[in-house]
């Protein structure tokens, strides 16, 4: 890195987004000052913690200490995503975006218009929750009369927004590497709820869908099941959109293609992957130019 200050653009990617923490640790070790943060989805969560005053090591310790399996079971059974909302409010302590120590923006998508919505003020927990509202997993959030969902629908990596927050050079972190062939991870319901669950009907439904195979023109080769196709297609779409949006900004891409979207229990491994990606980027002669 040749620059001593950067405006960060942290992209979405669910569990993969924990790699942002490793990048932050590398920046701190090298004495590179982060002057602003724009975050989408998981990037908004990590960015809000950092802009709120937590160091990279503190954020790393926070995520490493979470009992992810227990938290997931509680959250997925809560009504209307209330547990996620309560967790964010407790963690972010009722703060407002405009009162943070660094300029911060949470990026969302307007579900009605499809517009990008950039939150620069207002309740921090609500903004982060809206930016992280993965369709079909967490409910939309109503802010200012708009129905908002995960910002990765329109802006997976908010590099342009980061450039508007401060005059420092933009550094983007894109964790949406293409999934490795055949890698889709454990089915979501089974991962979050386990085998013994009151939501047994959902588990049976997901397993039934997984067994369904699609055959094309009588060929013998089975194609992936429906859920795998949806997850992989969604991932590839976001990756290509992210590449277009970060074309003009130096970008770190941690090797998280083998990490499942909801494999939060691999938090320590993912954060280390982000740190290694930063180190490789920082040692590149043209990094930060």
Quick structural overview:
The chain is an alpha/beta fold. 42% of the residues lie in helices and 13% in strands.
Spans of at least 5 consecutive residues with low confidence: 184-199, 213-221
Strand content: 5-15%
How is the biggest beta sheet arranged?
Answer: 8 strands, mixed
Let me know the number of strands.
8
Q: Tell me the quaternary state.
A: single chain
Write structural notes for this entry.
The protein contains eleven helices and eight strands. 42% of the residues lie in helices and 13% in strands. The chain is globular. It has helices spanning 19-29, 42-51, 56-65, 68-77, 82-92, 124-131, 159-165, 188-193, 200-211, 226-245, 267-282; strands at residues 5-10, 33-40, 104-110, 116-119, 141-143, 146-150, 170-173, 251-252. Strands 1, 2, 3, 4, 5, 6, 7 and 8 form an eight-stranded mixed β-sheet that branches. Helix 5 (82-92) packs across helix 6. The relative contact order is 0.20. By secondary structure, the protein is an alpha/beta fold.
Keyword list:
8 strands; eight-stranded mixed beta sheet; globular; 289 residues; 11 helices; alpha/beta
Element layout with pairings:
Elements: E1 5-10, H1 19-29, E2 33-40, H2 42-51, H3 56-65, H4 68-77, H5 82-92, E3 104-110, E4 116-119, H6 124-131, E5 141-143, E6 146-150, H7 159-165, E7 170-173, H8 188-193, H9 200-211, H10 226-245, E8 251-252, H11 267-282
Parallel strand pairs: 1-2, 1-7, 2-3, 7-8
Antiparallel strand pairs: 3-4, 3-6, 5-6
Helix pairs in contact: 1-3, 1-11, 2-6, 5-6
């Amino acid at each position: 890195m040749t620059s001593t200050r950067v405006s960060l653009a942290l992209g979405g990617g669910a569990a993969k987004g924990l790699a942002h923490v490793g990048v932050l640790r590398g920046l701190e070790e090298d004495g590179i000052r982060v002057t602003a943060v724009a975050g989408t989805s998981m990037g908004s969560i990590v960015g809000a913690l950092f802009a709120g005053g937590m160091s990279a090591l503190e954020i790393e310790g926070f995520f490493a200490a979470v009992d992810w399996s227990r938290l997931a079971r509680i959250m997925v059974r809560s009504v209307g995503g209330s547990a996620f909302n309560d967790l964010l409010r407790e963690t972010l302590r009722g703060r407002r975006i405009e009162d943070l120590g660094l300029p911060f923006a949470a990026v969302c998508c307007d579900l009605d218009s499809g517009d990008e919505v950039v939150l620069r003020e207002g309740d921090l927990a609500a903004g982060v929750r809206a930016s992280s509202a993965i369709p079909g997993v967490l409910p939309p959030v109503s802010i200012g009369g708009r129905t908002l969902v995960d910002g990765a629908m329109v802006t997976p990596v908010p590099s342009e927004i980061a450039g508007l927050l401060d005059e420092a050079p933009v550094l983007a972190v894109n964790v949406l590497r293409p999934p490795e062939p055949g890698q889709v991870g454990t089915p979501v319901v089974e991962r979050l709820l386990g085998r013994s669950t009151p939501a047994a009907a959902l588990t049976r439904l997901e397993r039934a869908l997984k067994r369904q195979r699609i055959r094309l023109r009588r060929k013998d080769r089975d194609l992936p099941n429906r859920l795998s196709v949806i997850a992989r297609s969604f991932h590839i779409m976001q990756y290509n959109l992210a590449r277009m949006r970060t074309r003009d900004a130096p970008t770190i891409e941690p090797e998280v293609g083998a990490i499942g979207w909801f494999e939060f229990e691999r938090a320590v491994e993912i954060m280390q992957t982000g740190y290694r990606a930063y180190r490789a980027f920082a040692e590149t002669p043209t990094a930060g130019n």
